[in-house]
User: What shape does this take?
Amino acid sequence: EALRSNSRNLSTVTLAAWTRFGEGDRVQARKFALLSPPQFPPTAYILAATGQRTETLRRLDEAARQNPAASMLNTNRGFAMMGLRDTAAAIDALEGATNAGEIWPSIQPVTDPMFDDLRNNARFVSLLKRVGLSANGAGPTPGPIDRR
Assistant: This one.
């Protein structure tokens, strides 16, 4: 119903894309992800994970050109790189997001399968600790949070 009443609503489009992706319908997931703006991490991941490498990279460049000071550019790149299964680039971007104070751990739970390729990487485990999450991402780490 929400898609019929407003097929351009970002929440609706994102939920539709994730639902279709979770159901294994990559074609419909991609269709809905393409309706989102270029700088939106969840749909950047879906576009990349559904094989749209060229379009994903084009949209990352477009987002950076449109607003180079935007607050989620690193997060967007990190999510896209996870979808492209480029672990090193994903962690580089998420480290940049953390350094910039972006709220990437709040966008998608780090327990989500999209993070599976990163989960056993020592840099990612260290990054989780920096943002106050345990190594499994399920809860807070004891002690102060190091945002440096």
Q: What stands out?
A: The two ends are 45 Å apart (CA to CA). Residues 141-148 have pLDDT under 50 and may be disordered.
